[in-house]
Amino acid sequence: MGATNKARLAVLASGNGSNFQAIIDACEDGRLDAQIVLLIVNRPSAYALERARAHGIATQVIDHKAHPDREAFDAVLAEAIDAAHPDWIIMAGFMRILTDGFVNRFLGRLINIHPSLLPKYPGLDTHARALGAGDRAHGATVHFVTPTVDAGPPIVQGQIEITPDDTVERLKQRIHGIEHCIYPLAIEWLIEGKTDFDRASAQTNPAVVDASGAQIVPPRP
Ligand code: GRF
Question: In what order do the strands lie in the sheet with 154-161?
Answer without folding.
Answer: 59-61, 34-41, 7-13, 88-91, 110-114, 137-144, 154-161, 207-209, 215-217
